[in-house]
Structures are given as structure tokens and as C-alpha cells.
Design goal:
The complex is a heterodimer of chains A (402) and B (247). Chain A is built from 16 helices and 14 strands. With 402 residues, chain A is α/β, with parallel strands linked by helices. Chain A folds into two domains: 154 residues, Rossmann fold (3-Layer(aba) Sandwich), CATH 3.40.50; 218 residues, Rossmann fold, CATH 3.40.50. A six-stranded mixed β-sheet of chain A has the order 3-4-14-9-10-13, with helices on both faces. Chain A has a four-stranded parallel β-sheet with strand order 7-6-5-8, with helices on both faces. In chain A, strand 11 and strand 12 form a beta hairpin. Chain B contains eleven helices and nine strands. Chain B is α/β, with parallel strands linked by helices. In chain B, strands 5-4-3-2-1-9-8-7-6 form a nine-stranded parallel β-sheet. In chain B, helix 7 links the parallel strand 6 and strand 7. The chains are: A alpha/beta (402), B alpha/beta (247). Chains A and B meet through helix 1, helix 8 and strand 11 of A and helix 2, helix 4, helix 6 and strand 6 of B. Bound molecules: pyridoxal-5'-phosphate. The site of pyridoxal-5'-phosphate has 21 residues of chain A, from helix 5, helix 11 and helix 15. Pyridoxal-5'-phosphate binds next to helix 5, helix 11 and helix 15 of chain A.
Chain lengths: 402, 247
């Protein structure tokens, strides 16, 4: 039947494209795995008992709903209402577990016993190791050698949870390379389940991860209504590595044209310093990890090595939904440097007693970059807590003092 | 047009990475392999993130890139030996470098060089059908699709119908390049695939490393392709011995 209703941008077409971006650019060696995943995701996403399981684990195991906290101090500083969506209070300390709960239930349904994942900051690795322990499944996590060093606490947590952590030693030894290794392992072990950690990869991953993270904006709507009488904020701000927390925080607002959506990218040492991960500014359309998206690359199509102080944002691409919505102007992107993020992290510690993840600190720093009106109601998605970054914070604080 | 890959004789092919081990090696290697009697050569376009490749091809690709290899240079090299090359060349590479070069310009260059077959593993059969088919047909270039022992019969039939002037690339096992897993005896499956593809040339590759591997592949296929094993020989400057043992 013809429907006159405009299709939501959150829904890709039958080939997995969001406008120009997305799709499944995969070698035949992955065709079966991806097709199996697509069919099973289609079945589960509207299945009542699957969704009941998912929501009950989110409530009783993850601790959802996470608070929507009106920060008096930030509100006073910026002269409007500033809410923090406290994903840092999820079990394991970041939003990543929303997705791993959903995908592990799917993997279970598919009868999978071996789970693989890539991780950057280690939050997705920990969230995967956690749900694997919960479901008694074997867990292997690929992590760039450089990230293993700078996110040591999370490596320890994964190991304690029984996961095998395999260092990725190729390329920049960060998230991109861990993803390559995970994909290769999946090719060699087609029976395993690849539990991807961000809204990237071949269709249906970007859609699936966005839908498992959409709980964030569903809660924001309810909580805002309870607290202010209006379910719509004026602005939502989230950081983008691959884009899972941003996709979740924006999800139920994409079709509300009045809500401004702001995606914050890591500018490293400066957008044009050569040490940056500001993909939407520096990138151009290209194919990496199975989807056509915005990609940092040289003029010959070789992927360039990104840089960010934050391991979770140190990725040369963004999810195809973000590539599309930034290209059309629906979402605005703002670059934040390493130093700006560090300053915001220290500030939030002092003003609100919250140590944010380095990734989330990028989202906070964007408050200094946007025009703010008195009647603004701004939600900043605080995607994770900063325990994993303590060593970086203390080292940087020392450097700043000297 | 005759299908160049439909031959009475069983074919032997070698994969090389363009610009490996030296930038100029592409030209040397093509002429060397032709002289040794190789039937066709797969010329690999290096990419920073080769997701279906094992360590050997990964390493050769990153070395080739640090040697300065890119598509502009590769086409210059191929043009310089155009008159000397009598055997088919098949370009193989991931999509992104081709997209940045410009797909249409790329196909045009291939046509000019009389290269009529490409292998681009991350263009899936579906993506090809709805996005790129027309452009390939315009330049009469045929994409050789990969199949694996796990590919369904229905899909193999569908793919083999699309193959007119090229070949189907049978990946010997579900694994990245350069490994001989050999844990399962796939001979029955290969027999089935041979029947499903009886009208089109079938070439087997991935994990074939020596004369014995070729012999085995030839039982089911029209040709066998060696990749990583030859690159390893090149790395150690053993290519003369390698070829002597092979043929
Ligand atoms: C706390 C936190 N926030 C954000 C991110 C970035 O990922 P994404 O863009 O998928 O939300 C990460 C990734 O590791 C993270 O750990």
C-alpha cells in the first residue's frame, strides 16, 4: 500500500542505504554471515518476547533508565537549561552495553557460541566480555596495540571477565586495525558472531546498532516531559567515534525538525594539524569496513591514520547514517581538540563531581562552541565515565602545570 | 568476443602486488611470469585496509604503498609494456582506490589497455547489480565474482549466468588469503560446483602454494591461482626456483 507518510531517515532502503551512504560492500566470503544476520535481525526486532528480554535486561542488569540530570552549575554557566544524559551510570560505565545486550540476545537466538568484537577505548570490549560472561559464551576481542597501552584498565577488566584480548598490530594499531582483524577472523570463522560496537560496518549493522541505542533518546523524551512538561529539547549534543551513542541520542529526534542535533568529532591537535579525526570535515565518500561513508583518505583512496587523545574517537570513518545526515545538514558537526576536551573534563569534575570519559568530554566542550539562547534546553549525552582515562588525565594535568 | 579464459589447457595464474617488492617490480614481474609460461596474471592494486587478505598480502600491500604505488603509476607501468604483454592481465583490488581514481576513468583506462576483467572483492553481486552494472557494460569490462564452498547453489547459478567473457573465482575455503586450513575434505563440494559452473571457466585461488595444490585445483577447475606463496618467494628472491618447481 502506498503510504503518504514521509519515511524516517533512521530507516535505510532495502539495500541498506541512507541516501547516498551505507550498503553492504562485502566480499563473498562474508555474504552468508551478513545475510544470516540480516534475516535474524529482521525477525527479532519486532518480536515481542525478544524485545521483552532486551528491555528487562536493560532495566534490571544495566540499570536503565539512566538519569537525565539537570546540572545547576552548567546551566548557570551557560545561561540556559543543560541536562546530562547519564550513560556513564550504565553497568560497565558507558552506553556500549545497550548494544551488546541487544546483539547478544540475537546471537543466542541464532545459536552462536563464539563471539568476536573490536574495541577502541575498551568500553565496547568490556561490554561484550560482560554479556558473554552473562550468557556463558566464548569471547574474543581485537584491540589495537596502541589502545591496549592507553586503556589498560579496560584490558584488565576484559581479561577478568574471561575474554581473550588479541592485539592488532597492523596500521595505526588503533580501532580501524582492530576492526580489520575482527573482520578477517569472521571470514576465517564463519560460525562466529561478530558483535560490532558502533553504528558502522555493512548493512544491517549501522541500523541494528542505532536501534539498540535508540533507548537513549526514548528515555530522554520521557524524562524531559516529566521534568519540564515538554518532551523536546532544543539541542542534543553527542560525540561521534563511529557514531553509536550519537545515533542513540538523536534517534527519536531526527524527524523533529526543531531539535538541533550536534555531532562532535575529535579534532586531535587541530582539524588541519595532520593529527586529527574530524572525519566529516576532512573526509570524503569512500568504502571502508563494508559501507560507503565519509572517510579520511588520501587522494589515492588509501585510508589515512587518524589521531585523537581519545581511543574511542580515533577512527577514520563515521557511520553512514551520520554521513548522510551531516551531508544533508540535518546534523551539524563540531570539531573539538584534545586540549578542549581535557579542559571540559576537568571542569565537569569540579563543577558537578563527575569524571567523564574522554570521548564524552568532547561533547561537553561543544557547549563553548555553539550560540546559546536563554530558553535553550540542551541535552548532552554523557556517553561514559572516565575511570579508564584516569592515567591520561593525571599525566595531562601534570603537563599543563609544568 | 571470445572468452580468453576458455582454454583446452588447464590454466596457471599468479597474483602479484603492484609495486612489490620495488616500485618498478610490476613491469619486471609481468614480463618474467609471461616468459615462464604463466597463462594469466592477476595484478593486485595495493590498499591500506585489505579486509579479505592474510598477512603476506597485507605486508606486500603496505610495502608497495610505501614504495609510492598508486593507480596513476600502475597505469603508466602497464602502458609502458602494453605491446610486450601477450597474456591476459586481470586487475584485482579493493573498491576504494578505484572510487577515488574515478570508476568510469578506471574502466576507460582498462579498456584502452585491453584489460577486460577485474576482481573487486568488495563489490558484492548485489551492489554490482543495482549500482555499477551499467558502467561496466558500457566499457565492456567484466567483473569476475568470487564464490566460496559455502555459497548456495542457487546463488552460484545466478552468478554463473552473469559470467560471459570472464571466469568465476572459486575461493578454495572460507578463509583469508595465504592459508591452507585443509581441515575439511571439500572434494565433493568442488565436484558440485564444477557441475554448476560447467559453462563458464572456473579458477580456484586462496591457499594454493605449490605444484601439488595446482594439480588438486585442476581436478575441479579450469585454472589455479597462486598468490601469497609467490609473494613469499619474491620476498626472498627465490622466484626462479619457485617457478622451476611449479611448472
Ligand atoms: C564512552 C564512549 N563514548 C563514545 C565512544 C565512541 O563511540 P560511538 O561513536 O560509537 O558512540 C566510545 C567508544 O569507545 C566510548 O567508550
Amino acid at each position: 500500500m502506498e503510504t503518504t507518510e514521509k519515511k524516517s531517515i533512521t530507516q535505510p532502503d532495502e539495500n541498506g542505504f541512507y541516501g547516498e551512504f551505507g550498503g553492504a560492500f562485502i566480499p563473498e566470503l562474508l555474504a552468508l554471515q551478513v545475510e544470516e544476520l540480516r534475516i535474524n535481525f529482521e525477525k527479532c526486532k519486532n518480536d515481542v518476547s525478544f524485545l521483552e528480554n532486551y528491555h528487562s535486561l536493560l532495566k534490571d542488569y544495566v540499570g536503565r533508565p539512566t538519569p537525565l540530570y539537570l546540572s545547576q552549575n552548567l546551566s548557570a554557566k551557560y545561561g540556559c537549561k543543560i541536562f546530562l544524559k547519564r550513560e556513564d551510570l550504565c553497568h560497565t560505565g558507558a552506553h556500549k552495553i545497550n548494544n551488546t545486550i541487544g546483539q547478544i540476545l540475537l546471537a543466542k537466538k541464532m545459536g552462536k557460541t563464539k563471539i568476536i568484537a573490536e574495541t577502541g577505548a575498551g568500553q565496547h570490549g568490556v561490554a561484550t566480555a560482560t554479556v558473554c560472561a552473562l550468557m556463558n559464551l566464548e569471547c574474543t576481542v581485537f584491540m589495537g596495540e596502541k589502545d591496549i597501552e592507553r586503556q589498560a584498565p579496560n584490558v584488565g577488566r576484559m581479561k577478568m571477565l574471561g575474554a581473550k584480548v588479541i592485539p592488532a598490530t597492523s596500521g595505526s594499531k588503533t580501532l580501524k586495525d582492530a576492526t580489520n582483524e575482527a573482520i578477517r577472523f569472521w571470514i576465517n570463522n564463519p560460525d562466529s558472531y561478530y558483535l560490532i560496537g558502533s553504528a558502522v560496518g555493512p548493512h544491517p549493522y549501522p541500523q541494528m546498532v542505532a536501534e539498540f541505542q535508540a533507548i537513549i533518546s526514548a528515555e530522554i523524551k520521557n524524562q524531559l516531559f516529566e521534568q519540564t512538561g515538554n518532551s523536546l529539547p532544543t539541542k542534543v549534543i553527542a560525540c561521534v567515534g563511529g557514531g553509536s551513542n550519537a545515533a542513540g541520542a538523536f534517534y527519536h529526534f531526527y524527524d523533529e525538525a526543531k531539535v538541533e542535533l550536534i555531532a562532535v568529532e575529535a579534532a586531535g591537535e587541530g582539524v588541519y594539524s595532520g593529527k586529527s579525526a574530524a572525519t566529516s570535515i576532512l573526509g570524503s565518500p569512500g568504502v571502508l569496513h563494508g559501507s560507503l561513508t565519509l572517510l579520511m583518505q588520501d587522494k589515492f583512496g588509501q585510508v589515512t591514520e587518524p589521531h585523537s587523545i581519545s581511543a574511542g574517537l580515533d577512527y577514520p570513518g563515521i557511520g553512514p547514517l551520520h554521513a548522510e545526515t551531516i551531508s544533508t545538514g540535518r546534523v551539524k558537526s563540531i570539531p573539538i581538540t584534545d586540549n578542549e576536551a581535557l579542559n571540559s573534563a576537568f571542569e565537569l569534575c569540579k563543577s558537578d563531581g563527575i569524571i567523564p570519559a574522554l570521548e564524552s568530554a568532547h561533547a561537553l566542550a561543544a557547549l563553548d562552541k555553539i550560540a546559546i539562547q536563554l530558553d535553550d534546553v540542551i541535552v548532552v549525552n554523557l556517553s561514559g565515565r572516565g575511570d579508564k582515562d584516569i592515567e591520561t588525565y593525571l599525566n595531562e594535568e601534570l603537563k599543563m602545570k609544568n | 568476443m571470445e572468452n580468453k579464459f576458455k582454454q583446452e589447457k588447464k590454466q596457471v595464474s599468479i597474483f602479484i602486488t603492484a609495486g612489490y617488492p620495488k616500485l618498478e617490480s610490476t613491469v619486471e614481474q609481468i614480463l618474467f611470469l609471461q616468459e615462464k609460461g604463466i597463462d594469466f596474471i592477476e595484478v593486485g592494486i595495493p590498499f591500506s585496509d585489505p579486509m579479505a587478505d592474510g598477512e603476506t598480502i597485507q605486508k606486500s600491500s603496505s610495502l608497495a604503498l610505501s614504495n609510492g604505488m598508486n593507480l596513476e603509476i600502475l597505469f603508466q607501468q602497464l602502458e609502458s609494456i602494453q605491446d610486450k604483454v601477450k597474456i591476459p592481465l586481470v586487475l584485482m583490488g579493493y573498491l576504494n582506490p578505484v572510487l577515488q581514481f574515478g570508476l568510469e576513468k578506471f574502466l576507460q583506462k582498462c579498456q584502452n589497455l585491453n584489460i577486460s576483467n577485474l576482481i573487486i572483492p568488495d563489490i558484492s553481486f548485489e551492489i554490482y547489480t543495482f549500482k555499477y552494472k551499467e558502467l561496466f557494460e558500457k566499457y565492456k569490462i567484466e567483473l569476475c565474482f568470487l564464490i566460496t564452498p559455502n555459497t548456495s547453489n542457487k546463488r552460484i547459478e545466478l552468478i554463473s549466468k552473469k559470467c560471459k567473457n570472464g571466469f568465476i573465482y572459486l575461493v578454495s575455503q572460507n578463509a583469508t588469503t595465504g592459508q591452507e586450513k585443509g581441515e575439511k575434505d571439500l572434494s565433493n563440494r568442488y565436484e558440485e560446483i564444477k557441475l554448476l559452473c560447467k559453462n563458464v571457466p572456473l579458477m580456484m585461488g586462496f591457499g594454493i602454494s605449490d605444484k601439488q595444490g595446482i594439480k588438486k585445483a585442476h581436478q575441479y577447475c579450469d585454472g589455479a591461482i597462486i598468490g601469497s606463496a609467490y609473494l613469499k618467494a619474491l620476498e626472498n628472491n627465490f622466484q626462479e626456483k619457485f617457478m622451476a618447481d611449479l611448472l
